[in-house]
Amino acid sequence: VVSTQSTGSSGINAEYGYSVEWFMCVYTRTLPWATVLRVWDMFLCEGVKVLIKVGVTLLLLAFSDPAIRDACDSFDKAIKYLKYRLPKELLEEDFFVTELLNLQISERTLKEAHLSQLAKLKDICG
After folding, report:
1. Does residue 65 contact residue 71 with C-beta atoms inside 8 Å?
2. C-alpha to C-alpha distance for 19 and 54, rounded to whole angstroms
3. How many beta carbons lie within 10 A of that of residue 36, not counting itself?
4. More confident of the two residues 19 and 3
5. Are the C-beta atoms of 31 and 91 separated by less than 8 Å?
């Protein structure tokens, strides 16, 4: 997500911090090892779109409960919830992979979102 509220002189906002950890570490610091191995298998077979779908699945599972969405009323609270309080049963291999496979995001939607975010980034960074 690119917003118009950037921090520092770099023009890149703080929201990138956690997603960078997800993608640079390929979820090894977020998911249980058995789930990571399944995600990696899917990534090697299907490509980078799997990594995006994992992130979307994590967010959907984490914030599906309206009470949790209400409690996480700031970006900081949402990140702390994702890092420290996300129920482990949501990340268990069979459950998580089933949810991931049920996520319906087309190649076209991914491409459109990618192009949209690139355009926003270009506007921010010049």
Report:
1. no
2. 11
3. 19
4. 19
5. yes
